[in-house]
């Protein structure tokens, strides 16, 4: 790193607001648990983002909430959780509202409300992460709030949701690209994810330049373009595998929609152009390799005796 003096330890809360950390620096975290509600007040640039990662892959846990307060920061291979067991409390999880922010190779679990709240406008990504059991309860019942990833992107800029393992959540959706207000949902690419919970895209002023390809979803339901108050724009839905879905819905009236080479193993959709319905294999396996994480080498998805499963493979 060029801003801080090498080999000079500093406390976490000081480091994440230090003017000595400058674009291009890497902030290495020693192993341990960092408990609290944190805001990153450091900024990189498009050409030189700031990276936060464990030192020598030591186990690092951020326990509480974290907000990206400034742009062009990426966090790699960190575990996020919320150890508060009162799931009736509504905490903000991980909040990304700045451009150029990334979560790479992170294990995100048991966050209240959403695992990742990703709003504002601009580029960024959630890639090669494992997200599970996020959300909150209301009066002891599962509510409709709380998702693995909840996001909209009104101003545009490529947002990548790729190579993630999204397991069961307390809340309703795993991927929720949605707005209830006057926001566009621009420039999302969702690819090579493995999903075990419902997916919803659509709402607000509609999807624009949306790509959904090479994903594997087992169980739940999937809907694209629903609840938008005007016509959704360009989309490509391609090369996905849908397994035992209870329902599948794609809004009519897109400006430009292409659906092609998707496979359905039992369930929905059972009669739609661009989808081939097949009997679910009794045994099947597919490995999705990672290219960025230093923690995991990829996702192993499989069907054994008719039962679907997916796990992260450690390097």
**Mean pLDDT metric:** 92
Output the structural class.
Answer: mainly beta
Q: Distance between termini?
A: 26 Å
Q: State the low-pLDDT regions, or none.
A: 1-7
The value of Rg in angstroms is 20 Å
Strand content: over 45%
**Overall morphology:** globular
Question: Which bin fits the share of residues in helices?
Answer: under 10%
Number of alpha- plus pi-helical segments: 1
Number of strands: 35
Biggest sheet, in brief? Answer: 18 strands, parallel
Which keywords apply here?
315 residues; mainly beta; 18-stranded parallel beta sheet; ten-stranded parallel beta sheet; 35 strands; 1% helix; 46% strand
Structural notes for this entry:
The protein is mostly beta strands and 315 residues long. It has a domain at 82-284. Helix content is 1%, strand content 46%. The chain has one helix at 12-15, and strands at 26-29, 32-40, 50-54, 60-68, 73-76, 79-81, 94-96, 101-104, 107-109, 116-118, 124-127, 130-132, 137-138, 141-142, 149-151, 159-162, 165-166, 175-177, 185-186, 188-191, 194-195, 199-201, 207-208, 210-213, 216-218, 221-224, 235-238, 241-245, 247-250, 257-260, 262-267, 275-278, 284-289, 296-304, 307-314. The longest helix has 4 residues, at 12-15. It starts with 11 loop residues before the first helix and ends with a strand.
């Amino acid at each position: 790193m060029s801003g801080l003096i090498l080999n000079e330890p500093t406390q976490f809360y000081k480091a994440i607001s230090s003017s000595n950390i400058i674009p291009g620096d890497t902030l290495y975290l020693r192993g341990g648990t960092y408990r609290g509600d944190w805001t990153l007040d450091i900024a990189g640039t498009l050409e030189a983002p700031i990276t936060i990662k464990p030192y020598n892959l030591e186990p690092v846990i951020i326990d509480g909430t974290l907000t990206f307060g400034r742009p062009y920061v990426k966090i790699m291979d960190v575990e996020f959780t919320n150890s508060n067991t009162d799931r009736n409390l509504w905490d903000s999880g991980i909040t990304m509202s700045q451009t150029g922010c990334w979560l790479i190779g992170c294990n995100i679990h048991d966050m209240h409300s959403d695992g990742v709240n990703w709003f504002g406008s601009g580029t960024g990504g959630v890639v090669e992460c494992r997200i599970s059991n996020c959300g909150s309860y209301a009066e002891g019942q599962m509510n409709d709030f709380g998702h693995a990833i909840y996001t909209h992107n009104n101003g545009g800029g490529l947002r990548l949701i790729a190579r993630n393992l999204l397991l069961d959540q307390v809340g309703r959706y795993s991927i929720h690209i949605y707005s209830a207000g006057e926001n566009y949902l621009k420039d999302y690419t969702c690819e090579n994810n493995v999903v075990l919970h419902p997916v919803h895209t659509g709402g607000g002023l509609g999807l624009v330049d949306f790509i959904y390809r090479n994903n594997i979803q087992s169980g739940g339901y999937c809907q694209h373009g629903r609840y938008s108050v005007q016509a959704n724009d360009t989309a490509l839905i391609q090369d996905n595998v849908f397994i035992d879905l209870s329902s599948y819905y794609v809004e009519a009236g897109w400006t430009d929609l292409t659906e092609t080479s998707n496979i359905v193993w039992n369930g929905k959709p059972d009669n739609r152009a661009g989808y081939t319905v097949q009997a679910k294999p009794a045994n099947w396996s597919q490995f999705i390799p990672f290219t960025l994480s230093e923690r995991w080498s990829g996702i192993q998805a499989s069907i054994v005796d008719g039962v679907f499963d997916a796990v992260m493979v450690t390097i």
